[in-house]
Amino acid sequence: MSLVFQSLVLGVLMGGLYALLAAGLTLYFGVMRVVMIAHSAFLVLAAYLAWTFTVHTGLDPMLSLLVTVPLFFALGVAVQRLLVARLRPATLTMMSVLLTFAVALVVEGLLGFVFSGTHRRIPLSYSGARLELFGASVALVKLIAFGLAVVTLAGLHVLLKVTRFGQALRATMQHREAARLLGVDTDRVAGFGFGLGLATAAVGGTALALDSTIYPSLHWHWIGPLMAIIVVGGLGSVAGAAVAALVLGVGQNLLQLPLGTTWAQTFFYAALFLTLILRPQGFFGGRLAQRF
Amino acid sequence: MDLARRMRIGALGAVAALLVGGCFGGRPAEGGSGGDGPIRIGVSLPLTGDFSEPGKGVQRGYEAWAKHVNENGGLLGRQVELTVLDDQSNADRVAADYERLINSDRVDLVFGPFSTRLVIPAAQVARDYGFLFVEPAGAAAEVFEQGFENLFYAAPAVAQDHYDHLAEAIIAMPEATRPRTAAYAAMDDPFAQGTANGLKEKLAEAGIRTVVDEVYPPNTTDFGSIAAKIADSRADVVVGGTQYQDAVNLIVALRQLGYQPKLAAFSTAPTNPEFPAAIGAQTEGILSPTGYTPEADYPSNNEFVDFYTREHNTAPTEDEANAWTTGQVVAAAVNAAGCADPSPECQRKLIDWLHGNEVQTVVGPLKWDAVGRPQGAHLIQQYVGGEIRIVLPADAEEAELVYPKPAW
User: Fold this and answer.
1) What residue in A sits closest to B52 (Cα-Cα)?
2) DSSP for B173-229?
3) pLDDT at B33
4) Which CATH superfamily is domain B39-158+296-366 in?
5) Could A256 and B248 be called an inter-chain contact, meaning their C-beta atoms sit closer than 8 Å?
6) B158 has which bridge partners?
7) What dotted CATH number matches B163-290+379-396?
8) What is the ipTM, given to two decimal places?
């Protein structure tokens, strides 16, 4: 019983991290129908920047967010303006897969060049620290990552629902031409939307680096599960992705008990196939994905 | 002529040049060199891709060995010359590389690549041409189940036997303190799994109960669930059949669950210099098998460590040592047989000599069974007082085995 409860706790914590890592992907797709294969490469880049920051300054990796979040926002705007915006609208979704695949390879290559292939881990005094919760252990680093996920996703939600920029972004998501007719500068909004997505990668990468060993090719392990999450959740829906991430994270952790690690890994893809067969628009996305 | 047109013609010219270069630019075959020319040794290594880090280590070892031989009068009075190709860690490519080395480059001898997955296809090619195949890194059981009689593994022990000294030490403990249960987690990789399985079989036979036995795919990065199972079992011993990141992530996940084993052993990772940087002070008491230590007091080892340290300003690791050992083994056969050419007669003489003799190397004296398994065991290291020291076997120990291990 205690093992099941422990796995449940681990699953919830992991689901939170998944939700944070996948948040950017839903934004890119929602705003511009862009499938961003390089998202996880940027997560690893942020993780390396956090590692470098801590190793050189001895300060907590969370402080690196002060630099990486604005940096990644600017980088996202640049990637959208200089690369993605040049793709022809008719073939945008397909071509964005190729383009961002290339970006992922470039980022990975640069990471290998600058940091070498050596596996790294941020040395943290509290890496093994834990709290007791009804007999289950909750690792402090996992709790911090979960907290970052909650804060970031809540911030994103408020930004999208309450601010004028959020309204413009949602209008652009829903109908680009109509938004333009109403005076929304959709090019600018698209750039900022992309920047926002990449800014979440800065937060996600730092959260990831708190509790994992990082290396340049790590991003290939992440992109598959993250893509599965946003399809199951409904392409373009931040809340849908968050719910899907929690469900898949908990499901995978619980399934590991009877099935072992190898078969539990297929859970994401089984969920992906079932979603595509039974409800191709995803469970929360609805209208947007149907059009795609 | 406008620019676009000029560029198009330029591109056409470049393509033509590449084609011609590809057809006729290859190195002219020099023919099986007997005589006084250099002895040419062909090798394919994973210099890029998954195994690039250890692959480069092996390359450094081979190059250091060749330089050392050449500075000391060569082999049979001839200089040695290495031809190194990059197989990109790809099993299809490694076979093609050895085809090329033997057939079109016409090398006199070949050395093996890195890792089980590449050694098997490469050894297949070498066997087809009757070549001697000494390899620095292919320790998994599969390597020796293919019926290769031209293959020799140039290291002290196969994966299954890496923990032999530890198994003996545990079994010899007095009943009262001896561990009763053990948990195993191994990567689904022939080498990593082989090390854990070897220890599991021996301990199970001695009555130490297996309470967790997990196998995970190589791409696993989250070890929360596996750690939860191990922690829940409260096993006295935890054994990881690991490479690198999996060991580090598993150890941290175990600590996060408050699990404290009496003994913890992991393959490969603890010998990596990055390991203490990742784990910190909690490395204390962690055990690991190793096939090599620069401190070992074999005569040729002192020479190797001095030479290598002079060249690279750092002591050699296991990868460099195994490569150097490969060179030593082939050189011993060549000196005894008095030949080094690709002819089947000469290669046969080399193979036969190695089947019947022992070779003194930097990892100690080596001899092999009929399919090339070395007949030794690995040293067991432990982090004691913040440093990694040899604790087993007793005749090689630098520090005493710490049991039970301190809390991590």
Assistant:
1) A117
2) S-TTTS--EEEEEEESSHHHHHHHHHHHHHHHHTT-EEEEEEEE-TT----HHHHHH
3) 44
4) Response regulator (3.40.50.2300)
5) no
6) none
7) 3.40.50.2300
8) 0.90
Give A-chain residues touching B188 at CB under 8 angstroms: 262
- A4: tokens are 């099941």
From B228, B234, B216, select the one nearest A10 (Cα to Cα): B228
Residues of chain A with pLDDT below 70 are: 1, 285-292
pTM of the model: 0.84
List chain B domain ranges. Answer: 39-158+296-366, 163-290+379-396
Q: Which of B131, B137, B132, B130 is nearest to B154 (CA)?
A: B137
Peptide bond into B393 cis (omega under 30): yes
Please tell me whether residue A138 adopts helix, strand or coil conformation: strand
B369 at A interface, C-beta within 8 A? no
In three-state secondary structure terms, B84 is: strand
Q: What is the enclosing helix (H) or strand (E) of B288?
A: strand B287-290
**Which amino acid makes up residue B273?**
P
Note whether B153 and B368 are within 8 A (CB): yes
| CA-based nearest residue to A228, from A19, A47, A78 | A19
Left (φ > 0), alpha (ψ -120 to 50) or beta: where does B390 sit? Answer: beta
CB-count burial class (<10 Å; 0-12, 13-18, 19+) for B394: exposed
B163-290+379-396 and B39-158+296-366 share a CATH fold: yes
Between chains, do B274 and A265 touch, taking CB under 8 Å as contact? no
Closest Cα to residue A242, out of A254, A253, A230, A228? A230
